[in-house]
């Protein structure tokens, strides 16, 4: 009978990004001959890393086509949401846009490659718009939010806004979008939503 060997101890890896409040990290995987095990979320470890949030809802979406873009979305206060995003199947380029008027990085975006393979997670604080483009077919994205869904407070910005100039790595004309996302307003049309 084969027995598995535990070949490595995981450690949380935090990768600094250009917008310091958006955090990219990897919880760490216990690798052995069978594969791996990972604590994908641990409230105590998040608190120890200074990333404590009270998540109240888990979401999951499946996007079948490569080049599917979901976003850029946010919920306005008092229903703003921080998000902890990870990919359980496939891969995305995940993007956060700083909408906090008082922020030195207001109107700036930051992105990271998240995949089932790399196990990376992106923590997007309240005050940001969030969106992603899929890099593989049948990509499943799971994310925790710290505020309940509130349709009336939903807002968004069109993915190809020229002022944001997000490099999605695809031809914008080839993007798969929902009708809702095709109709999203320009960044310049946003009012003062987040202080
Ligand atoms: C977000 C959400 C949606 N819905 C319903 C509303 C629609 O009938 C249906 C699809 O919603 P939507 O087209 O907004 O789904 P996405 O385009 O994936 O939106 C999400 O994509 C980007 C990347 C985000 O960061 C947001 O969390 C979220 O806006 O699910 C719910 O019932 N609860 C929810 O929390």
Automatic annotation (TrEMBL):
<dbReference type="GO" id="GO:0019305">
    <property type="term" value="P:dTDP-rhamnose biosynthetic process"/>
</dbReference>
<protein>
    <recommendedName>
        <fullName>dTDP-4-dehydrorhamnose 3,5-epimerase</fullName>
        <ecNumber>5.1.3.13</ecNumber>
    </recommendedName>
</protein>
<dbReference type="Pfam" id="PF00908">
    <property type="entry name" value="dTDP_sugar_isom"/>
</dbReference>
<comment type="pathway">
    <text>Carbohydrate biosynthesis; dTDP-L-rhamnose biosynthesis.</text>
</comment>
<comment type="similarity">
    <text>Belongs to the dTDP-4-dehydrorhamnose 3,5-epimerase family.</text>
</comment>
<comment type="function">
    <text>Catalyzes the epimerization of the C3' and C5'positions of dTDP-6-deoxy-D-xylo-4-hexulose, forming dTDP-6-deoxy-L-lyxo-4-hexulose.</text>
</comment>
<feature type="active site" description="Proton acceptor">
    <location>
        <position position="73"/>
    </location>
</feature>
<feature type="active site" description="Proton donor">
    <location>
        <position position="143"/>
    </location>
</feature>
<keyword id="KW-0413">Isomerase</keyword>
<dbReference type="InterPro" id="IPR011051">
    <property type="entry name" value="RmlC_Cupin_sf"/>
</dbReference>
<feature type="site" description="Participates in a stacking interaction with the thymidine ring of dTDP-4-oxo-6-deoxyglucose">
    <location>
        <position position="149"/>
    </location>
</feature>
<dbReference type="GO" id="GO:0008830">
    <property type="term" value="F:dTDP-4-dehydrorhamnose 3,5-epimerase activity"/>
</dbReference>
<dbReference type="GO" id="GO:0000271">
    <property type="term" value="P:polysaccharide biosynthetic process"/>
</dbReference>
<dbReference type="InterPro" id="IPR000888">
    <property type="entry name" value="RmlC-like"/>
</dbReference>
<comment type="subunit">
    <text>Homodimer.</text>
</comment>
<dbReference type="InterPro" id="IPR014710">
    <property type="entry name" value="RmlC-like_jellyroll"/>
</dbReference>
<dbReference type="GO" id="GO:0005829">
    <property type="term" value="C:cytosol"/>
</dbReference>
